Amino acid sequence: MTSYTNDCGMPAKDKLPERVDFLQMERGKKSAMLLLTGAICGLVGFAFVGIIGQFQFSFGAQEVNFRGEPFASGHNFFPVSISDMVHDPNTPQGKCFFAFCMAAALCILVSFHSYHLRNCYIGDDKGICGVSYLSLRSVLPPMGLILCSAITMTPIKQATLMENVATGIHGLGAGLFLSGYVIFEIQCLCFSDAVHLDKARHEKAVRLTFVGLTILAMAIWVTSTQVALSGNKLGLCCSDVWQVPTKEDYVLAQRNGKPGTALDVMWAFERGTPMLLNTASETVLAITMTAYWGEAMSGIFMIGGLIAIWWYCPERKFDLNETFGGYAGSYAGYGTMEDAS
User: Fold this and answer.
1) Which of the 8 DSSP states describes residue 267?
2) For 149-161, what is each residue's pLDDT tens digit?
3) What is the DSSP letter of 9?
4) Are 295 and 219 in contact (CB under 8 A)?
């Protein structure tokens, strides 16, 4: 039978507490680093796409409708949401949003910060249907971000039944990501006796501020989106105008020197798919911009809350031993390094 000893000739089990402490410290520091990496990726993703949308509207080349004519409103198209902006994965904003948000989701998922960071750990007893809040917080928000970034939405006016189903899943992902953060953060900060918070530096107040800002931005986003989409019913001026193109529109697009647009018109006419004839202006345009930035700021404030968790967690400042595992010449479970090899 193999005798497991350390490099001093002592039984390996005598160093077990030291090894456990090292593993806890190592996992905590790694978790903090992954959380920060995920937060930065998410912040870049939301901010980058938000700025691109505003830049294209304000400074981009003049866009035309499906007839190859400039929009009568005099404005380029402005999407009602970040999701609408990135719905085409072949555009620069679509590619960047997918890449940064997928990286953010994976880093946050594998960090398991609710298990390894003291300012998030609330114990394993409380949960829903036998699943602890720790597990739900570790999985639901990042999985929601994966669904939101991987399953793009189709513009509402152009969506078929099955595309609306996919859009619903996209919306579910956004809800899990943002609402999951809000619910689990409130539960952690306001209803847990086990969590360790930095009272001297007002950690609870700072994190609750980010929660409140996220809720406010979400409320502005949802309300403004509903108003913008119902502009005509509410008598507001002036909503986007969508229309199924005709054969005459195909001819007009060709005459106006837009053969690519004419090809799109042909496909839309054959399938009965509406295309954009005129863009929003005045009141509806202002509300659309509010909805767009409301969604962008929801994600940015939520990411800010994650950065606050990283900033206050003591694990990010751990100073690990310079020898692997906190000991030299021995290997847990094998005795000496020679035995392990």
Assistant:
1) H
2) 999 998 888 888 9
3) S
4) no
